[in-house]
């Protein structure tokens, strides 16, 4: 088994912990290297995540570092998050448990898959998201006009600051703050949550991932697409965005942590 280690690069203690993880894995006969950004931060060199042939990616950081890592991976590689962040909801291991867990990792592990969404504009791929795709007005305090088309039928039309198309994984993130439900990650679906809709009756929708989903922007106002808070794409005005389940799910090392216990522990006292 071979590991690549990704650390947040803005925190010296996290980088020092990354070194101790590399040493622990080497002692357990598991070759481990730093990814490009982490290596540069400690004066070394390392592979870009898009080119890694590692069997596991160990991430030391919070959710943003995990989300960015998954976006940068080429083919799917199981991710093990060690929490060195403010919340670290996607990081299933706390630092105190990390080294003992890693020593046992070499004996094998199971993988949990999480659906991602893929987006395209007029047939041109825009990217994928593990948490959500946010379509939002470029100009603050201006509204966009949305039509949500499901299986070719206009399901809802409204004006709003923006619209979140979230996965079940992202239902505990921005979508939660915007009033959406917590969605069991075993459910395969799209969670649509409008941002400040100018309509009394607009509600979040959870729809099956098997549906054909299209979002039409119908006001001549500029909009942006933001994927997992990491990647921003200009949509210009009046776009037609097609959304489907990505054929490539994200993979996490299953540390047997209960999702609902994590919600209770990590999100009740933010
Ligand atoms: N008002 C909000 O709640 C809000 C606003 C912007 C972005 N976000 C979320 O932040 C994510 C990007 O994370 P970041 O750390 O780079 O941004 P960030 O540093 O602005 O932090 C956003 C917060 O959301 C938490 N978070 C991220 N993904 C989560 C998940 N799946 N479940 C529970 N909490 C989660 C992070 O721990 C962090 O505390 C975006 O995908 C979006 O979901 C939330
Ligand atoms: N390789 C990198 N390139 C650019 N910025 C990075 C990199 N690694 C980490 N960062 C920055 O470090 C900080 C850590 O983000 P991260 O989301 O991991 O932790 P957090 O926000 O403290 O925790 P949480 O997201 O769990 O609340 C962010 O400001 C992130 O942009």
Automatic annotation (TrEMBL):
Keywords, ordered alphabetically: ATP-binding, Cytoplasm, Kinase, NAD, NADP, Nucleotide-binding, Transferase
Residue positions binding NAD(+): 63-64, 68, 131-132, 142, 159, 161, 172-177, 196, 230
GO MF term set: ATP binding; metal ion binding; NAD+ kinase activity
Superkingdom, natural source: Archaea
GO cellular component: cytoplasm
Keyword check for NAD: yes
Name assigned to this protein: NAD kinase
Any one of the GO BP annotations: NAD+ metabolic process
Needed co-factor(s): a divalent metal cation
Name of the gene: nadK
One Pfam family, short name: NAD_kinase_C
Family according to the record: Belongs to the NAD kinase family.
Function: Involved in the regulation of the intracellular balance of NAD and NADP, and is a key enzyme in the biosynthesis of NADP. Catalyzes specifically the phosphorylation on 2'-hydroxyl of the adenosine moiety of NAD to yield NADP.
Catalytic reaction equation(s): NAD(+) + ATP = ADP + NADP(+) + H(+)
EC number: 2.7.1.23
Subcellular location, record wording: Cytoplasm
HAMAP family referenced in this protein's UniProt entry, alphabetically: NAD_kinase
